Amino acid sequence: MASHLRLWLQRHAPVLCAPGLCYGATDHAADDAATLAAAAALAAELPPGVAPWTSPLRRCLGLAQALAALRPDLPPARIDARLAEMDFGAWEGQAWQAIVRTELDAWTADFADARAGGHGESTRRFMARVGEAWDDWRADGCEAVWITHSGVMRAVELIARGVRVPASAADWPSAPMAFGTLRRIEADPP
User: How confident is the model at residue 1 (pLDDT cuts 50, 70, 90)?
Assistant: First the structure.
């Protein structure tokens, strides 16, 4: 067994919706041309034998399908709901700028346990489901690529550093992450 396991994290292409929209769990499709370009770049990067996992949302499924067409040598993609973006509850479909500031402040004040958008997911629950997928990936002992969302990729950054729940909103990774971004994480086998 290798001394380290590699996990590639691939963000989907730009979604077909208005800029600045909160759409975490909403199932928007992604731009076809950008999806094909991301799949081509990913196909060129991945070594043989990498196991694809994908979020069930269309913006990721389309990328997984495009990758499969380019890399038939890879195993079929594993569709895993734990790789879906965070559910932002009542904020889904609203422009981020239109969300009442006091609601955002209340969420960030209790970042671990407040439910986004009133009835969406808490950060603790979101991190737990991504952490379960992380643990299963490590237990599998196989290199993988997750075709997923920026929130999941940020959660993995924390989990890889041993943080299962950020103490505050200030601890959430905030570096820009463009559509189509590919990152690689290394982890020790369990």
Answer: very low
Closest CA to 16 of 64, 59, 61, 67: 59
Q: What is the pLDDT of residues 11-53, one digit of tens each?
A: 999 999 999 999 999 999 999 999 999 999 999 999 999 999 9
Output the pTM of the full model: 0.96
* Every domain of the chain and the residues it spans: 5-187
Fold of 5-187: Rossmann fold (3.40.50)
Task: Name the phi and psi angles at 187, rounded to 5.
Answer: -140, 150
99: left (phi > 0), else alpha (psi -120 to 50), else beta?
beta
Pair 145, 50: CB distance under 8 Å: yes
